[in-house]
Amino acid sequence: MLEVDTILEHIGKFGRFQRITFALGCFCALLCGMPVVQDSFVMFNNPHRCAVPVCDPDSDADYDAEYLNYTVPADDEYTWSQCEKFFVVEPENASCIPEDFDEDKTVKCHKWVYDTSLFQSSTVSDFDLVCDRAYLSPLASTCYMAGMLVGSIVLGDISDRFGRKVALIISVLLIGVSGILSAVSPNIIMFLITRVFTGMGGVALFATVFILAVEFVGAEYRTFCGILIEIPFALGEATVGVLAMGIRDWRWLQAAITAPFFLCITYWWFMPESVRWLISKGRNAEAVKIIEKAAKVNKATLPKELLQIPDDKFEEDIAVISSKADLLNPQEKQRSKTVLDLLRTPNMRKRSINLFFCWAVCTLCYYGLSQNAGNLGGDIFLSFILTMLIEIPSYIFCWLVLDSLVRKNSFSFLTFLAFEIKFLFEIKFQVEWLMLTLSLVGKFGMSAAFAIIYVYSAEIFPTDYRSVGIGACSMFARVGGMLAGPIASLSEFYQSLPLLIFGLLSIISGLLVVFLPETVGCELPLNLEESEEFGKDQGVLYFTCWGQKNEVKESETQ
Protein backbone atom coordinates (compact mmCIF):
# COMPACT_ATOMS: atom_id res chain seq x y z
CA MET A 1 0.00 0.00 0.00
CA LEU A 2 1.24 3.47 -0.85
CA GLU A 3 1.75 5.49 2.34
CA VAL A 4 1.98 9.14 1.28
CA ASP A 5 3.29 10.51 4.57
CA THR A 6 6.04 7.87 4.66
CA ILE A 7 6.95 8.65 1.04
CA LEU A 8 7.21 12.36 1.88
CA GLU A 9 9.81 11.51 4.52
CA HIS A 10 12.06 10.29 1.71
CA ILE A 11 11.38 12.64 -1.20
CA GLY A 12 11.13 15.81 0.89
CA LYS A 13 8.23 17.49 2.64
CA PHE A 14 8.53 20.84 0.87
CA GLY A 15 11.03 20.29 -1.92
CA ARG A 16 11.28 21.87 -5.36
CA PHE A 17 8.37 19.81 -6.71
CA GLN A 18 6.06 20.96 -3.92
CA ARG A 19 7.22 24.56 -4.24
CA ILE A 20 6.48 24.61 -7.99
CA THR A 21 3.04 23.08 -7.40
CA PHE A 22 2.39 25.57 -4.62
CA ALA A 23 3.42 28.50 -6.86
CA LEU A 24 0.98 27.33 -9.55
CA GLY A 25 -1.72 27.20 -6.90
CA CYS A 26 -0.85 30.71 -5.72
CA PHE A 27 -1.26 32.11 -9.25
CA CYS A 28 -4.79 30.69 -9.45
CA ALA A 29 -5.51 31.97 -5.92
CA LEU A 30 -4.50 35.47 -7.06
CA LEU A 31 -6.93 35.29 -9.98
CA CYS A 32 -9.72 33.96 -7.74
CA GLY A 33 -9.56 37.08 -5.60
CA MET A 34 -10.50 39.41 -8.46
CA PRO A 35 -14.12 38.51 -9.34
CA VAL A 36 -15.06 38.43 -5.65
CA VAL A 37 -14.61 42.19 -5.20
CA GLN A 38 -15.07 43.51 -8.74
CA ASP A 39 -18.54 44.91 -7.98
CA SER A 40 -17.01 47.92 -6.24
CA PHE A 41 -16.10 49.20 -9.72
CA VAL A 42 -18.18 47.17 -12.18
CA MET A 43 -21.32 48.11 -10.21
CA PHE A 44 -20.11 51.62 -9.42
CA ASN A 45 -23.01 53.97 -8.76
CA ASN A 46 -22.23 56.96 -10.97
CA PRO A 47 -23.72 60.23 -9.71
CA HIS A 48 -26.83 60.84 -11.77
CA ARG A 49 -29.76 63.18 -12.27
CA CYS A 50 -33.01 63.19 -14.19
CA ALA A 51 -32.75 63.73 -17.90
CA VAL A 52 -34.80 66.66 -19.21
CA PRO A 53 -35.75 65.78 -22.81
CA VAL A 54 -36.82 69.36 -23.55
CA CYS A 55 -33.33 70.65 -22.68
CA ASP A 56 -30.87 67.74 -22.79
CA PRO A 57 -29.52 66.69 -26.19
CA ASP A 58 -29.90 63.04 -27.18
CA SER A 59 -26.20 62.47 -26.45
CA ASP A 60 -23.42 64.13 -24.46
CA ALA A 61 -25.77 65.94 -22.10
CA ASP A 62 -24.07 68.23 -19.59
CA TYR A 63 -24.39 66.74 -16.10
CA ASP A 64 -24.11 70.20 -14.48
CA ALA A 65 -26.04 72.25 -17.04
CA GLU A 66 -27.26 75.70 -16.00
CA TYR A 67 -30.91 74.94 -16.84
CA LEU A 68 -31.06 72.43 -13.96
CA ASN A 69 -31.86 75.37 -11.67
CA TYR A 70 -35.40 75.44 -12.97
CA THR A 71 -35.89 71.94 -14.48
CA VAL A 72 -34.88 69.57 -11.64
CA PRO A 73 -35.56 69.94 -7.89
CA ALA A 74 -32.49 70.36 -5.70
CA ASP A 75 -31.95 67.79 -2.93
CA ASP A 76 -29.58 70.23 -1.25
CA GLU A 77 -27.32 73.10 -2.19
CA TYR A 78 -24.94 70.94 -4.21
CA THR A 79 -26.95 68.03 -5.68
CA TRP A 80 -29.93 67.61 -7.96
CA SER A 81 -32.80 65.20 -7.51
CA GLN A 82 -31.97 61.78 -8.90
CA CYS A 83 -35.50 60.52 -9.38
CA GLU A 84 -37.76 63.53 -10.01
CA LYS A 85 -38.02 66.54 -12.33
CA PHE A 86 -40.37 69.48 -12.70
CA PHE A 87 -43.51 69.02 -14.77
CA VAL A 88 -43.37 70.45 -18.30
CA VAL A 89 -46.47 72.59 -18.88
CA GLU A 90 -46.68 72.29 -22.67
CA PRO A 91 -44.18 69.70 -23.97
CA GLU A 92 -45.05 70.36 -27.62
CA ASN A 93 -44.14 74.05 -27.43
CA ALA A 94 -41.47 73.95 -24.71
CA SER A 95 -38.09 75.51 -25.49
CA CYS A 96 -36.20 74.98 -22.21
CA ILE A 97 -36.97 78.29 -20.53
CA PRO A 98 -38.14 78.70 -16.90
CA GLU A 99 -41.72 79.43 -17.95
CA ASP A 100 -42.01 75.93 -19.47
CA PHE A 101 -41.74 74.22 -16.06
CA ASP A 102 -44.11 74.08 -13.10
CA GLU A 103 -41.91 74.10 -10.01
CA ASP A 104 -44.87 73.20 -7.78
CA LYS A 105 -45.37 69.86 -9.52
CA THR A 106 -42.87 67.03 -10.01
CA VAL A 107 -42.92 63.81 -12.03
CA LYS A 108 -40.81 60.66 -11.90
CA CYS A 109 -37.82 60.28 -14.19
CA HIS A 110 -37.70 57.68 -16.94
CA LYS A 111 -34.27 58.58 -18.25
CA TRP A 112 -31.10 59.77 -16.57
CA VAL A 113 -27.89 61.68 -17.20
CA TYR A 114 -24.80 60.22 -15.50
CA ASP A 115 -21.62 61.88 -14.32
CA THR A 116 -18.84 60.16 -16.28
CA SER A 117 -15.94 62.13 -14.82
CA LEU A 118 -14.73 59.15 -12.74
CA PHE A 119 -16.04 56.13 -14.68
CA GLN A 120 -17.14 56.24 -18.28
CA SER A 121 -19.71 53.53 -17.62
CA SER A 122 -20.83 50.92 -15.12
CA THR A 123 -23.65 48.40 -14.99
CA VAL A 124 -25.61 50.98 -13.00
CA SER A 125 -25.41 53.57 -15.78
CA ASP A 126 -25.76 51.10 -18.68
CA PHE A 127 -28.79 49.32 -17.21
CA ASP A 128 -30.25 52.32 -15.32
CA LEU A 129 -30.10 50.61 -11.91
CA VAL A 130 -31.28 53.72 -10.07
CA CYS A 131 -34.40 54.93 -8.32
CA ASP A 132 -37.10 52.24 -8.67
CA ARG A 133 -34.53 49.78 -10.08
CA ALA A 134 -31.81 50.45 -7.51
CA TYR A 135 -32.64 47.23 -5.63
CA LEU A 136 -31.18 45.21 -8.53
CA SER A 137 -27.65 46.55 -8.02
CA PRO A 138 -26.73 44.71 -4.77
CA LEU A 139 -28.14 41.48 -6.21
CA ALA A 140 -24.90 41.04 -8.18
CA SER A 141 -22.91 40.16 -5.06
CA THR A 142 -25.80 38.10 -3.71
CA CYS A 143 -25.87 36.06 -6.93
CA TYR A 144 -22.11 35.55 -6.73
CA MET A 145 -22.37 34.24 -3.17
CA ALA A 146 -25.29 32.01 -4.14
CA GLY A 147 -23.09 30.62 -6.89
CA MET A 148 -20.36 29.93 -4.35
CA LEU A 149 -22.83 27.97 -2.23
CA VAL A 150 -23.97 25.85 -5.18
CA GLY A 151 -20.47 25.48 -6.63
CA SER A 152 -18.94 24.20 -3.40
CA ILE A 153 -21.51 21.38 -3.38
CA VAL A 154 -21.78 20.49 -7.08
CA LEU A 155 -18.15 20.88 -8.10
CA GLY A 156 -16.98 19.42 -4.81
CA ASP A 157 -18.81 16.24 -5.75
CA ILE A 158 -17.30 16.31 -9.26
CA SER A 159 -13.86 16.72 -7.67
CA ASP A 160 -14.38 13.63 -5.51
CA ARG A 161 -15.80 11.54 -8.37
CA PHE A 162 -13.67 12.49 -11.37
CA GLY A 163 -10.55 14.07 -9.91
CA ARG A 164 -9.19 17.45 -8.89
CA LYS A 165 -7.89 18.37 -12.35
CA VAL A 166 -11.26 17.73 -13.97
CA ALA A 167 -12.90 20.00 -11.40
CA LEU A 168 -10.15 22.58 -12.00
CA ILE A 169 -10.75 22.75 -15.76
CA ILE A 170 -14.54 22.89 -15.35
CA SER A 171 -14.11 25.71 -12.82
CA VAL A 172 -11.82 27.67 -15.14
CA LEU A 173 -14.26 27.33 -18.03
CA LEU A 174 -17.17 28.39 -15.82
CA ILE A 175 -15.36 31.55 -14.72
CA GLY A 176 -13.93 32.35 -18.14
CA VAL A 177 -17.05 31.84 -20.23
CA SER A 178 -19.46 33.40 -17.72
CA GLY A 179 -17.08 36.32 -17.16
CA ILE A 180 -16.88 37.11 -20.88
CA LEU A 181 -20.66 36.75 -21.18
CA SER A 182 -20.96 39.21 -18.28
CA ALA A 183 -18.90 41.74 -20.23
CA VAL A 184 -21.26 41.58 -23.20
CA SER A 185 -24.51 41.31 -21.25
CA PRO A 186 -27.30 43.31 -22.91
CA ASN A 187 -29.34 43.55 -19.70
CA ILE A 188 -29.10 43.14 -15.95
CA ILE A 189 -30.86 39.75 -15.89
CA MET A 190 -28.18 38.13 -18.03
CA PHE A 191 -25.48 39.81 -15.98
CA LEU A 192 -26.90 38.42 -12.72
CA ILE A 193 -27.19 34.91 -14.16
CA THR A 194 -23.57 34.95 -15.30
CA ARG A 195 -22.50 36.11 -11.83
CA VAL A 196 -24.01 32.92 -10.37
CA PHE A 197 -21.87 30.77 -12.66
CA THR A 198 -18.79 32.90 -11.97
CA GLY A 199 -19.31 32.33 -8.24
CA MET A 200 -19.65 28.58 -8.81
CA GLY A 201 -16.37 28.45 -10.68
CA GLY A 202 -14.54 30.83 -8.35
CA VAL A 203 -15.13 28.92 -5.12
CA ALA A 204 -14.45 25.54 -6.75
CA LEU A 205 -11.24 26.73 -8.42
CA PHE A 206 -9.80 28.11 -5.19
CA ALA A 207 -10.73 24.99 -3.22
CA THR A 208 -9.24 22.73 -5.90
CA VAL A 209 -5.89 24.52 -6.24
CA PHE A 210 -5.72 24.77 -2.45
CA ILE A 211 -5.94 20.99 -2.18
CA LEU A 212 -3.52 20.33 -5.04
CA ALA A 213 -1.00 22.86 -3.72
CA VAL A 214 -1.10 21.91 -0.05
CA GLU A 215 -1.93 18.22 0.33
CA PHE A 216 1.40 16.91 -0.99
CA VAL A 217 3.53 18.87 1.51
CA GLY A 218 4.58 17.55 4.90
CA ALA A 219 2.17 17.89 7.81
CA GLU A 220 4.36 20.48 9.55
CA TYR A 221 4.18 22.76 6.49
CA ARG A 222 0.43 22.54 5.89
CA THR A 223 -0.67 25.28 8.28
CA PHE A 224 2.03 27.58 6.88
CA CYS A 225 1.02 26.87 3.26
CA GLY A 226 -2.68 26.98 4.09
CA ILE A 227 -2.32 30.54 5.39
CA LEU A 228 0.31 31.65 2.86
CA ILE A 229 -1.95 30.84 -0.11
CA GLU A 230 -4.43 33.42 1.20
CA ILE A 231 -1.88 36.19 0.54
CA PRO A 232 -2.06 36.02 -3.28
CA PHE A 233 -5.85 35.96 -2.93
CA ALA A 234 -5.64 39.35 -1.18
CA LEU A 235 -3.21 40.57 -3.85
CA GLY A 236 -5.75 39.55 -6.47
CA GLU A 237 -8.40 41.61 -4.73
CA ALA A 238 -6.08 44.63 -4.68
CA THR A 239 -5.26 44.07 -8.38
CA VAL A 240 -8.86 44.96 -9.23
CA GLY A 241 -8.27 48.45 -7.84
CA VAL A 242 -5.11 48.81 -9.92
CA LEU A 243 -6.91 47.70 -13.09
CA ALA A 244 -9.81 50.04 -12.38
CA MET A 245 -7.42 52.99 -12.21
CA GLY A 246 -6.60 52.48 -15.88
CA ILE A 247 -9.83 50.93 -17.20
CA ARG A 248 -12.85 53.14 -16.56
CA ASP A 249 -15.33 51.21 -18.73
CA TRP A 250 -16.98 48.33 -16.87
CA ARG A 251 -17.17 45.99 -19.87
CA TRP A 252 -13.45 46.21 -20.58
CA LEU A 253 -12.69 45.97 -16.87
CA GLN A 254 -14.81 42.81 -16.65
CA ALA A 255 -12.93 41.36 -19.62
CA ALA A 256 -9.55 42.26 -18.08
CA ILE A 257 -10.50 40.51 -14.83
CA THR A 258 -11.74 37.40 -16.65
CA ALA A 259 -9.22 36.86 -19.48
CA PRO A 260 -6.26 35.66 -17.32
CA PHE A 261 -8.30 32.70 -16.08
CA PHE A 262 -7.95 31.01 -19.47
CA LEU A 263 -4.22 30.63 -18.73
CA CYS A 264 -5.19 28.11 -16.06
CA ILE A 265 -6.38 25.68 -18.75
CA THR A 266 -2.68 24.85 -19.19
CA TYR A 267 -2.75 23.38 -15.67
CA TRP A 268 -4.18 20.22 -17.23
CA TRP A 269 -0.62 19.53 -18.42
CA PHE A 270 1.43 21.23 -15.70
CA MET A 271 -0.44 20.63 -12.42
CA PRO A 272 -0.14 17.07 -11.05
CA GLU A 273 -3.29 15.20 -10.05
CA SER A 274 -3.91 14.60 -6.36
CA VAL A 275 -1.85 11.59 -5.30
CA ARG A 276 -4.12 10.89 -2.36
CA TRP A 277 -7.21 10.97 -4.62
CA LEU A 278 -5.58 8.57 -7.10
CA ILE A 279 -4.72 6.16 -4.29
CA SER A 280 -8.24 6.34 -2.87
CA LYS A 281 -9.60 5.40 -6.32
CA GLY A 282 -7.19 2.49 -6.74
CA ARG A 283 -5.28 4.22 -9.57
CA ASN A 284 -1.96 3.39 -7.98
CA ALA A 285 0.11 3.24 -11.17
CA GLU A 286 -0.72 6.88 -11.94
CA ALA A 287 0.08 7.84 -8.36
CA VAL A 288 3.45 6.11 -8.58
CA LYS A 289 4.36 8.08 -11.72
CA ILE A 290 3.67 11.38 -9.95
CA ILE A 291 5.62 10.28 -6.89
CA GLU A 292 8.59 9.23 -9.03
CA LYS A 293 8.48 12.57 -10.85
CA ALA A 294 8.40 14.42 -7.51
CA ALA A 295 11.41 12.43 -6.29
CA LYS A 296 13.29 13.24 -9.52
CA VAL A 297 12.52 16.98 -9.33
CA ASN A 298 13.50 17.03 -5.65
CA LYS A 299 16.68 15.03 -6.48
CA ALA A 300 15.75 12.49 -3.85
CA THR A 301 16.21 8.73 -3.73
CA LEU A 302 13.06 6.75 -3.06
CA PRO A 303 13.26 3.11 -1.82
CA LYS A 304 11.51 0.88 -4.34
CA GLU A 305 9.69 -1.07 -1.64
CA LEU A 306 7.67 2.04 -0.82
CA LEU A 307 6.17 1.99 -4.31
CA GLN A 308 5.21 -1.66 -4.32
CA ILE A 309 1.54 -2.15 -5.15
CA PRO A 310 -0.08 -5.30 -3.69
CA ASP A 311 -1.72 -7.71 -6.12
CA ASP A 312 -4.82 -8.16 -3.98
CA LYS A 313 -7.71 -5.78 -4.22
CA PHE A 314 -6.81 -2.34 -2.92
CA GLU A 315 -8.60 -1.48 0.28
CA GLU A 316 -9.66 2.10 0.51
CA ASP A 317 -8.47 3.23 3.89
CA ILE A 318 -7.10 6.65 3.06
CA ALA A 319 -9.57 9.46 3.54
CA VAL A 320 -10.09 11.62 0.47
CA ILE A 321 -9.26 15.16 1.37
CA SER A 322 -11.96 17.39 -0.05
CA SER A 323 -11.92 20.48 2.13
CA LYS A 324 -9.58 22.71 4.07
CA ALA A 325 -10.80 21.24 7.32
CA ASP A 326 -9.94 17.70 6.21
CA LEU A 327 -6.61 18.84 4.84
CA LEU A 328 -5.44 20.60 7.96
CA ASN A 329 -7.09 18.04 10.25
CA PRO A 330 -6.76 14.60 8.56
CA GLN A 331 -9.13 11.97 9.86
CA GLU A 332 -10.40 8.51 9.07
CA LYS A 333 -13.24 8.03 6.62
CA GLN A 334 -16.54 8.39 8.40
CA ARG A 335 -19.90 6.78 8.14
CA SER A 336 -22.69 8.96 6.84
CA LYS A 337 -23.46 11.69 9.35
CA THR A 338 -25.61 14.81 9.22
CA VAL A 339 -25.62 18.22 10.83
CA LEU A 340 -28.82 17.23 12.67
CA ASP A 341 -26.69 14.99 14.88
CA LEU A 342 -24.95 18.11 16.18
CA LEU A 343 -28.28 19.61 17.21
CA ARG A 344 -29.62 16.66 19.21
CA THR A 345 -27.64 17.22 22.42
CA PRO A 346 -28.00 20.47 24.40
CA ASN A 347 -24.34 21.56 24.68
CA MET A 348 -23.43 20.80 21.07
CA ARG A 349 -26.66 22.41 19.90
CA LYS A 350 -25.80 25.69 21.63
CA ARG A 351 -22.19 25.58 20.46
CA SER A 352 -23.10 24.72 16.87
CA ILE A 353 -25.66 27.54 16.59
CA ASN A 354 -23.14 29.91 18.16
CA LEU A 355 -20.50 28.94 15.58
CA PHE A 356 -23.00 29.15 12.70
CA PHE A 357 -23.77 32.73 13.72
CA CYS A 358 -20.08 33.63 14.08
CA TRP A 359 -19.26 32.29 10.63
CA ALA A 360 -22.17 34.17 9.06
CA VAL A 361 -21.11 37.41 10.77
CA CYS A 362 -17.44 36.98 9.82
CA THR A 363 -18.32 36.47 6.16
CA LEU A 364 -20.90 39.26 6.17
CA CYS A 365 -18.48 41.77 7.70
CA TYR A 366 -15.49 40.59 5.65
CA TYR A 367 -17.21 40.99 2.29
CA GLY A 368 -19.28 43.92 3.49
CA LEU A 369 -16.18 45.90 4.44
CA SER A 370 -14.60 44.95 1.11
CA GLN A 371 -17.61 46.15 -0.86
CA ASN A 372 -17.86 49.32 1.23
CA ALA A 373 -14.23 50.24 0.50
CA GLY A 374 -15.29 52.74 -2.15
CA ASN A 375 -17.65 54.61 0.21
CA LEU A 376 -15.02 55.87 2.66
CA GLY A 377 -14.43 59.20 0.97
CA GLY A 378 -11.16 60.41 -0.48
CA ASP A 379 -9.43 58.51 -3.28
CA ILE A 380 -11.69 55.55 -4.08
CA PHE A 381 -8.82 53.56 -5.64
CA LEU A 382 -6.39 54.07 -2.77
CA SER A 383 -9.05 53.22 -0.18
CA PHE A 384 -9.98 50.05 -2.05
CA ILE A 385 -6.40 48.83 -2.56
CA LEU A 386 -5.42 49.44 1.08
CA THR A 387 -8.58 47.71 2.31
CA MET A 388 -7.59 44.59 0.37
CA LEU A 389 -3.89 44.67 1.23
CA ILE A 390 -4.56 44.95 4.99
CA GLU A 391 -5.51 41.27 4.90
CA ILE A 392 -1.87 40.29 4.31
CA PRO A 393 -0.50 41.44 7.71
CA SER A 394 -3.55 39.86 9.37
CA TYR A 395 -2.71 36.47 7.82
CA ILE A 396 0.95 36.81 8.81
CA PHE A 397 -0.14 37.73 12.33
CA CYS A 398 -2.28 34.60 12.55
CA TRP A 399 0.47 32.37 11.20
CA LEU A 400 2.98 33.68 13.76
CA VAL A 401 0.77 33.40 16.82
CA LEU A 402 -2.02 30.97 15.93
CA ASP A 403 -0.58 27.99 17.77
CA SER A 404 -0.21 29.99 20.98
CA LEU A 405 -3.41 32.06 20.82
CA VAL A 406 -6.18 31.60 23.35
CA ARG A 407 -8.89 31.01 20.78
CA LYS A 408 -12.11 32.52 22.10
CA ASN A 409 -10.56 35.54 23.81
CA SER A 410 -8.46 36.28 20.73
CA PHE A 411 -11.54 36.05 18.51
CA SER A 412 -13.46 38.36 20.85
CA PHE A 413 -10.61 40.87 20.90
CA LEU A 414 -10.35 40.90 17.12
CA THR A 415 -14.09 41.35 16.64
CA PHE A 416 -14.04 44.19 19.19
CA LEU A 417 -11.18 45.64 17.14
CA ALA A 418 -13.37 45.40 14.06
CA PHE A 419 -16.10 47.21 16.03
CA GLU A 420 -13.94 50.33 16.04
CA ILE A 421 -15.52 51.14 12.70
CA LYS A 422 -18.55 52.17 14.77
CA PHE A 423 -16.74 55.40 15.46
CA LEU A 424 -17.05 56.28 11.79
CA PHE A 425 -20.69 56.86 12.60
CA GLU A 426 -19.72 59.44 15.22
CA ILE A 427 -17.13 61.13 13.02
CA LYS A 428 -19.77 61.76 10.34
CA PHE A 429 -17.15 61.58 7.59
CA GLN A 430 -15.40 64.82 8.42
CA VAL A 431 -11.89 63.34 8.81
CA GLU A 432 -11.18 61.14 5.80
CA TRP A 433 -7.80 59.77 6.91
CA LEU A 434 -9.27 58.72 10.26
CA MET A 435 -12.21 57.05 8.52
CA LEU A 436 -9.84 55.04 6.33
CA THR A 437 -7.58 54.13 9.26
CA LEU A 438 -10.45 52.83 11.37
CA SER A 439 -11.86 50.90 8.42
CA LEU A 440 -8.47 49.25 7.86
CA VAL A 441 -8.28 48.33 11.54
CA GLY A 442 -11.72 46.79 11.25
CA LYS A 443 -10.76 44.79 8.14
CA PHE A 444 -7.56 43.60 9.83
CA GLY A 445 -9.51 42.42 12.86
CA MET A 446 -12.19 40.68 10.82
CA SER A 447 -9.71 38.94 8.50
CA ALA A 448 -7.73 37.64 11.46
CA ALA A 449 -10.93 36.65 13.27
CA PHE A 450 -12.00 34.66 10.21
CA ALA A 451 -8.72 32.71 10.22
CA ILE A 452 -9.07 31.98 13.94
CA ILE A 453 -12.73 30.93 13.83
CA TYR A 454 -11.85 28.38 11.15
CA VAL A 455 -9.27 26.65 13.32
CA TYR A 456 -11.35 27.13 16.49
CA SER A 457 -14.43 25.52 14.92
CA ALA A 458 -12.42 22.50 13.79
CA GLU A 459 -11.32 22.04 17.41
CA ILE A 460 -14.83 22.51 18.89
CA PHE A 461 -16.49 19.90 16.71
CA PRO A 462 -15.62 16.31 17.62
CA THR A 463 -13.36 14.35 15.30
CA ASP A 464 -16.27 12.20 14.11
CA TYR A 465 -18.23 15.26 12.99
CA ARG A 466 -15.50 17.72 12.07
CA SER A 467 -16.14 17.73 8.32
CA VAL A 468 -19.90 17.85 8.86
CA GLY A 469 -19.60 20.76 11.29
CA ILE A 470 -17.20 22.78 9.12
CA GLY A 471 -19.38 22.14 6.08
CA ALA A 472 -22.46 23.44 7.90
CA CYS A 473 -20.53 26.50 9.10
CA SER A 474 -19.42 27.15 5.53
CA MET A 475 -23.04 27.09 4.33
CA PHE A 476 -24.06 29.67 6.94
CA ALA A 477 -21.03 31.72 5.91
CA ARG A 478 -22.34 31.84 2.35
CA VAL A 479 -25.69 33.06 3.62
CA GLY A 480 -23.87 35.86 5.45
CA GLY A 481 -21.98 36.68 2.26
CA MET A 482 -25.25 36.89 0.30
CA LEU A 483 -26.44 39.59 2.71
CA ALA A 484 -23.24 41.64 2.44
CA GLY A 485 -24.19 43.36 -0.83
CA PRO A 486 -27.69 44.46 0.20
CA ILE A 487 -26.40 45.79 3.53
CA ALA A 488 -23.49 47.63 1.87
CA SER A 489 -26.00 49.26 -0.49
CA LEU A 490 -27.73 50.89 2.51
CA SER A 491 -25.05 53.59 2.29
CA GLU A 492 -27.30 55.15 -0.38
CA PHE A 493 -29.74 56.03 2.41
CA TYR A 494 -27.20 56.83 5.13
CA GLN A 495 -23.50 56.52 4.44
CA SER A 496 -22.53 55.22 7.90
CA LEU A 497 -25.34 52.66 8.19
CA PRO A 498 -23.54 49.62 6.69
CA LEU A 499 -20.51 50.14 8.89
CA LEU A 500 -22.69 50.52 11.95
CA ILE A 501 -24.50 47.25 11.18
CA PHE A 502 -21.22 45.42 10.61
CA GLY A 503 -19.85 46.78 13.86
CA LEU A 504 -22.90 45.83 15.94
CA LEU A 505 -23.00 42.29 14.55
CA SER A 506 -19.27 41.81 15.13
CA ILE A 507 -19.54 42.90 18.77
CA ILE A 508 -22.48 40.52 19.33
CA SER A 509 -20.44 37.71 17.78
CA GLY A 510 -17.46 38.55 19.99
CA LEU A 511 -19.64 38.42 23.11
CA LEU A 512 -21.31 35.13 22.20
CA VAL A 513 -18.07 33.31 21.50
CA VAL A 514 -16.90 33.66 25.13
CA PHE A 515 -19.56 31.09 26.05
CA LEU A 516 -17.74 28.45 23.99
CA PRO A 517 -15.13 26.23 25.64
CA GLU A 518 -11.44 27.03 25.26
CA THR A 519 -9.44 24.50 23.22
CA VAL A 520 -5.79 25.58 23.47
CA GLY A 521 -3.83 22.84 25.20
CA CYS A 522 -6.96 20.74 25.74
CA GLU A 523 -7.48 17.16 24.73
CA LEU A 524 -10.04 17.52 21.98
CA PRO A 525 -13.23 15.40 21.88
CA LEU A 526 -13.44 12.44 19.51
CA ASN A 527 -17.21 11.88 19.47
CA LEU A 528 -20.49 13.51 20.45
CA GLU A 529 -20.47 11.97 23.91
CA GLU A 530 -17.09 13.48 24.73
CA SER A 531 -18.14 16.80 23.15
CA GLU A 532 -21.15 17.01 25.43
CA GLU A 533 -18.87 16.78 28.47
CA PHE A 534 -16.05 18.85 27.02
CA GLY A 535 -15.69 22.27 28.63
CA LYS A 536 -18.30 21.78 31.37
CA ASP A 537 -15.70 22.62 34.02
CA GLN A 538 -14.71 25.81 32.23
CA GLY A 539 -16.03 29.24 33.05
CA VAL A 540 -16.59 32.15 30.71
CA LEU A 541 -13.14 33.55 31.55
CA TYR A 542 -11.36 30.20 31.26
CA PHE A 543 -8.16 30.79 29.32
CA THR A 544 -6.24 27.58 28.56
CA CYS A 545 -5.82 23.90 29.39
CA TRP A 546 -2.05 24.11 29.54
CA GLY A 547 -2.04 24.38 33.31
CA GLN A 548 -4.45 21.49 33.60
CA LYS A 549 -2.25 19.30 31.41
CA ASN A 550 0.84 20.22 33.40
CA GLU A 551 -0.93 19.25 36.65
CA VAL A 552 -1.79 15.88 35.15
CA LYS A 553 1.80 15.31 34.10
CA GLU A 554 3.09 16.23 37.58
CA SER A 555 0.63 13.87 39.28
CA GLU A 556 1.68 11.06 36.93
CA THR A 557 5.35 11.72 37.72
CA GLN A 558 4.71 11.56 41.45
Outline of this structure?
This protein is mainly α and 558 residues long. The protein has helices at residues 4-11, 16-37, 39-42, 68-71, 123-126, 139-162, 164-183, 188-214, 219-228, 230-246, 250-258, 267-270, 275-280, 284-297, 324-328, 346-371, 380-389, 391-401, 407-418, 423-427, 432-460, 466-488, 497-512, 528-533, 546-557; strands spanning 48-50, 84-88, 101-108, 112-114.
Rg over CA atoms: 27 Å
Number of strands: 4
* Largest beta-sheet details: 2 strands, antiparallel
- Compute the average pLDDT: 80
Query: How much helical structure, as a percent, in the residues?
Result: 55-70%
Q: What distance lies between the first and last C-alpha atoms, to the nearest angstrom?
A: 43 Å
Quote the beta fraction. under 5%
**SSE arrangement, N to C:** HHHEHEEEHHHHHHHHHHHHHHHHHHHHH
Number of H/I helices: 25
Identify low-pLDDT runs.
311-325, 330-334, 546-558
Based on Cα principal axes, name the global outline: globular
Strand order, sheet with most strands: 1-4
- Based on secondary structure, the structural category is mainly alpha
Q: Can you give a write-up of this model?
A:
The longest helix is centred in the last third of the chain and has 29 residues, at 432-460. This protein has helices at 4-11, 16-37, 39-42, 68-71, 123-126, 139-162, 164-183, 188-214, 219-228, 230-246, 250-258, 267-270, 275-280, 284-297, 324-328, 346-371, 380-389, 391-401, 407-418, 423-427, 432-460, 466-488, 497-512, 528-533, 546-557, and strands spanning 48-50, 84-88, 101-108, 112-114. The strands form two sheets. It has a two-stranded antiparallel ribbon. Strands 2-3 form a two-stranded antiparallel ribbon. By secondary structure, it is mostly helical. It is built from 25 helices and four strands. α2 (16-37) runs antiparallel to α8 (188-214). The chain is globular, with a radius of gyration of 27 Å. Its main location: membrane. One of its GO terms (molecular function) is transmembrane transporter activity.
